[in-house]
Fold this sequence. Notes:
2 domains
Amino acid sequence: xxxxxxxxxxxxxxxxxxxxxxxxxxxxxxxxxxxxxxxxxxxxxxxxxxxxxxxxxxxxxxxxxxxxxxxxxxxxxxxxxxxxxxxxxxxxxxxxxxxxxxxxxxxxxxxxxxxxxxxxxxxxxxxxxxxxxxxxxxxxxxxxxxxxxxxxxxxxxxxxxxxxxxxxxxxxxxxxxxxxxxxxxxxxxxxxxxxxxxxxxxxxxxxxxxxxxxxxxxxxxxxxxxxxxxxxxxxxxxxxxxxxxxxxxxxxxxxxxxxxxxxxxxxxxxxxxxxxxxxxxxxxxxxx
Length: 288
């Protein structure tokens, strides 16, 4: 799942965000007609009282950073629209609450709700106070925020493998790019003909998009007469016209994405085996 955080610096930010999240024009009801609300250290279910409690905590601020103090964080936790068919109230509550527990450590104000948008991805909006309950900063560094997102996703992969379409690459610092040598660029400029690397990229990328696992990717490469090579028993690159090209560095293709899918498939198979054993055991007991 995708988790994004936006910092807000004005004192009326909690008010604006709370009114936005709980706007009646938003689809706050799940298919059964119920709302899914998250709140921590906030009394009642009155929006105005929530806003007053955020403001009261801000008035007790003990951490000051000139005029750039963050008042609250607007955090969005979203799932792929392809995962909607597998989502339910219990799964969303489990994952979002796990994130809240890790992020706030039980020591910050938090309120939010899930938007069950029709024909779109379901997502939760959260407002989290920047201050802890003692008035000091609860700021999370980028590295800490990244580790929290990864921890939640690892739990998601292990517990809900059916949400494989909501697996993302948390912590990726920059978009993977294909490397191009100066010689290659000059040749392409003179001839206007695609280089060997361009041709290889198009072929390998097409196979990569079709693959649901590392093994399937390697099988498709073999069928396309593209020889692969490994390092430390991991798929590393391919051969093309007697040259070696690394998947990640030269072609900008990250096979680790398929490894995440592999883990999800293994988990699904494991759960299927457990259910099958239970069915057999139940049938045996009934026959007796």
